[in-house]
Structure formats: C-alpha cells, structure tokens
Design goal:
The protein is mainly alpha-helical and 184 residues long. It has 6 helices and 2 strands; from the N terminus they run H-E-H-E-H-H-H-H. Helix 2 links the parallel strand 1 and strand 2.
Length: 184
C-alpha cells in the first residue's frame, strides 16, 4: 500500500508515518510530506535520530488524543447540564396544557380543546425525540468505552449517508425535504 492509500483508509489514516529514504534533497522531502508523511528521515540516519522521530510522533499523537478527550469531556458536561432544562421545556407544555384541560374542560370550546390537545401532542413528541437522542448518546458513550468498538466504527464507513438520513424521516411521517438552509 502506498502512503496516500494508507491516508485514505479510515483504519490507517491516523497512524503516524515516518518516511525513511535515501533521497535527502528538499524537493523529495517536500514531496514526502505532501503525500502525508509525518516526519522524514534521510538515510543514513542514526538510531538516536530514529528514536527521537518516533518519540516525537508518539508524543504528538498523545497530545491529539488528550485534546480530543478534553473536548469530549467538555461536550459531555454541557450535555449533562443542558439535558434537564431541555426536557423540562416540553414537559412544562404537557403539564400546563393538561392542567388547563383538567380544570377548564367544561368551559372550553371544542376548537380550544383540540388546540390544547395538539399542543400536548407536539410537546410530547419533542420530549420523546429528546429522550431518544439522549438514549442514543448514552449508547454511543458505552460503545466509546471499548477500544474494539471504536476501531470497528473507524473501519466502517457510510458511503451514502444522505439516503440513510432521508429514510427515517419518511418512516416517521416527517417531510421528505430538509428544513430551509439544511444541506444534506
């Protein structure tokens, strides 16, 4: 496999690559870096030079992993803080409209009762979507704790996600076209 092929494969794209070659001119080095090499060691090189290059690549990879983990922890914290508020909003709509129906049903016009019922239905659908999204998020968190699962996800690719996104929307009775400004 060539370097560009390795960089195009999800399972090998992030592997640090040190190009070792007898071509020591700057044009060859530039070409190797453009192909995706992370470092370039012209021959002959010393064992110390090789160790230093490997150590630098490993440290850089660890720094990238640490930063990604920091961002993920920040996202988790934000989701944990936002979730209760986001769930309360539709729940308040359900509770307030249900209370209105319970206490004033005898005095409300049929059209008002229907409108309140629609608001309850809309709020309950929103709450159901939030809960479903939260459950998906929780499942992803569980999957992410197992390195085997993470590697399996990295290897698998969805070539045509557009069709996968449209199918559930049609099945759920949603519009077949995305909202204005949303690009698939």
């Amino acid at each position: 496999m060539t370097l560009s092929s390795l960089r195009n494969e999800a399972s090998t794209a992030a592997i640090p690559f040190i190009l070792m070659t007898g071509l020591a001119d700057s044009a060859s080095m530039r070409h190797g870096m453009e192909l995706g090499a992370d470092d370039y060691l012209p021959k002959p090189f010393t064992t110390e030079g090789l160790y230093a290059a490997v150590d630098a690549r490993l440290k850089k990879a660890q720094t990238i992993r640490d930063e990604a983990e920091r961002k993920l922890a920040h996202l988790r914290d934000n989701i944990s803080l936002m979730m209760p508020h986001e769930m309360r909003t539709p729940l308040n709509g359900i509770l307030s409209n249900a209370e209105l129906l319970a206490h004033s049903a005898a005095t409300l016009k049929p059209g008002d009762v229907a409108e309140i019922g629609q608001e309850i239905h809309k709020s309950s659908e929103r709450l159901a979507r939030l809960i479903e999204n939260f459950l998906i998020y929780a499942q992803l968190e569980l999957v992410a704790t197992d390195p085997k699962n993470v590697n399996a996800l990295r290897v698998g690719r969805t070539e045509h996600p557009k069709s996968l996104i449209k199918k559930p929307r049609r099945r759920a009775g949603g519009p077949s076209q995305p909202p204005a400004g949303f690009v698939l």
